[in-house]
Amino acid sequence: MQNNNNTMVIGGTGQSTTLINIVKKPNPNYIEQKDVDCTNFASQVLYTGGIPKDNIWKPYSDAWFNVDKFYDYLINHKLAKECQLTELRLGDFIQYRNPNSNKNDFHHTAIVVKGG
Q1: Does the residue 93 lie in any domain?
Q2: pLDDT tens digits for 59-96?
Q3: For 37, left (φ over 0), alpha (ψ -120 to 50), or beta?
Q4: Residue 116, domain member (yes or no)
Q5: Residues 91-115: tens digit of each pLDDT
Q6: Which superkingdom is the protein from (predicted)?
Q7: Distance from C-alpha of 72 to C-alpha of 52, rounded to nearest angstrom
Q8: Which among 56, 75, 84, 88 is placed 20 to 30 Å from 111, CA to CA?
């Protein structure tokens, strides 16, 4: 579901407990990517929450780090779906895209940390 012409809401991941644990103590087994670490962080949340790695989605792969590829992986593997903002749960993802683009031109992955 696209909202405000620049947001793609991704639901169905619900990794809230995992998210809290990673925020409190970053995993030293992963290299932090300064200024572009949002999707790496989201991937760590999913993996730590029990989603298994594979040949496409694994540390340092495009699907692990790249916002567009991460979206494609989640949708194609039915790990997430587009949804309304009202359907989001703690731990779900919101991805932001270029409002001037007609395609999935994402630039940020955020994780829902508080309901409102």
Answers
A1: yes
A2: 989 999 888 899 999 999 998 888 888 888 888 888 88
A3: alpha
A4: no
A5: 888 888 877 776 777 888 888 877 6
A6: Eukaryota
A7: 16
A8: 56
